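Predict structure. Chain length: 237.
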Amino acid sequence: MRKITLAFSAACLLLGLNHSVVAKESAPAPLNPGVTVAQLAQQAPVHWVSVAQIENSLLGRPPIAVGFDIDDTVLFSSPGFYRGQKEYSPGKQDYLKNPEFWEKMNNGWDEFSMPKEVAKQLITLHLKRGDSIYFVTGRSQTKTETVTKTLQNDFLIPQSAVNPVIFAGDKEGQNTKTQWLKDKQIKIFYGDSDNDITAAQDMGARGIRVLRASNSSYQPLPKAGAFGEEVIVNSEY
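Prediction complete.
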């Protein structure tokens, strides 16, 4: 009888322990977990700069050629890309290889794109300096385009300073922007993607990172500062 009682007690104890473990594993996260001052102070070792600091670094220098990527750098263009995906390849990236999408995107859908505030500041700065401004995009080239006119209007670029958008396209295993930066003798190139920064660095230019908005349709988000480049503060919008 005693053996049965001991066995029963052991079974109850084991059941209780298992129940305790399950309860701990299934317990919801605390509603107010709090944060320590050490967590708040933790920062990634990134070379942050402001637009004012970039301007200061150019004091006394003669006019130069500067370049800008377009999507997620000067324009928040996700609305057009979001619509293109829904219309041409729902849930897939195939639409990016569809000429019909690029015809629409390059000829009107940028009317739904929002100019980024950081781009307004940067372009104003370089226009004031008398720098030559080039827009170099990875978009596919189309027979016609209204992107140049849209950028001119959005950023108040005088007609005398407008250069047609350069459509570098996208080729697997090749950074299509590098040669264009070299051809135009671009000294500073602003971009949100890794390819933008490496294209600049590969030909000895100053690559400066503009933050991609976290709600961009272009995911995953890149690691800003991963190449030791300067990263502009508050440049996600």
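Summary: Residues 1-15, 17-23 have pLDDT under 50 and may be disordered.
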